[in-house]
Each structure stands twice: as C-alpha cells, then as structure tokens.
Amino acid sequence: MDNIHLGTIATPYGSCDLRATISKYSDNDALAVLIEGTDDGLWSPYATLSVNIPEHAHILDENEFFAKDWSENEPLAEHLLDTDVFTDTGKAVPTGFVIAPVWRLNVSTD
C-alpha cells in the first residue's frame, strides 16, 4: 500500500490533514483508494473514494479507478480534484442510481 499526502481541508469539526492510501481490489486488481485523516497525528479512515465495479473494470486504463463522488463524498470530491493527485478522465459508468466517474491517479504507486 502507498500513502499520498493530499493536504489539509476545513471540516465542520476543524482542520483535517488528508492522505490517500492506495491498494488494489482482490477480485480484479482495480485501484482501491481510501482517504484517511488526522487532526492529532493518528491516522484513521475518513472516506472510501473508490468503488469496485467489476463488470466495468475492463474500461479502466492504468492508474484509473471508479470514484465515489456522491452522497457523503460529494463535498470531499471537489477538494480532491483541486489537488494534482487526481484527474477526472471524463469517462463514467452507471451504477445503481448514480453515475460513477473514472478518475486517474497522477502519481506513481511503485
């Protein structure tokens, strides 16, 4: 797993330092992206940014993943796209009642 620093965001509870932890889903090797946060030096899960959609994984290019930018992630998604770490590719797939955009991870995880 790789950790990528994302910066600090203001939350209703105060400032929170964020990092992305990158791994892979076991069933199809698609990128899995967990956002962790800290305000006291102890990292804990903040949000799950990726969503695994195995039936559409074939459309993903290298370093791409399906991003969960709806529901509780909606306010976070804009902040994450403002970093140089993620880019919206313009591709998307339907899943349930929403459309999952494809984002690219712009940093190496090797």
Describe the model.
The protein has 110 residues and is mainly β. The chain has one domain (2-105). It has 1 helix and 7 strands. The protein has one helix at residues 74-82, and strands at 2-11, 14-24, 31-38, 44-48, 64-66, 86-95, 98-105. Strands 1-2-3-4 form a 4-stranded antiparallel β-sheet, with no helix packed on it. Strands 5-7-6 form a 3-stranded antiparallel β-sheet, with helices on one face. The protein is globular. It starts with a strand and ends in a 5-residue tail after the last strand. The mean pLDDT is 91.
Euclidean distance between termini CA atoms = 9 Å
Beta strand %:
over 45%
- In N-to-C order, the SSE pattern is EEEEEHEE
Shape: globular
The main sheet orders its strands as 1-2-3-4
Structural class: mainly beta
Main sheet attributes: strand count, strand direction, barrel closure: 4 strands, antiparallel
Q: What is the number of strand segments? A: 7
Average per-residue pLDDT, rounded, comes to 91
Q: Tally the helices: what do you get?
A: 1
What is the total domain count?
A: 1
Question: Which features characterize this protein?
Answer:
mainly beta; 7 strands; three-stranded antiparallel β-sheet; 110 residues
Quick structural overview:
The protein has 110 residues and is mainly β. The chain has one helix at 74-82; strands spanning 2-11, 14-24, 31-38, 44-48, 64-66, 86-95, 98-105. The protein has one domain.
Layout of secondary structure:
Blueprint: E1 2-11, E2 14-24, E3 31-38, E4 44-48, E5 64-66, H1 74-82, E6 86-95, E7 98-105
Antiparallel strand pairs: 1-2, 2-3, 3-4, 5-7, 6-7
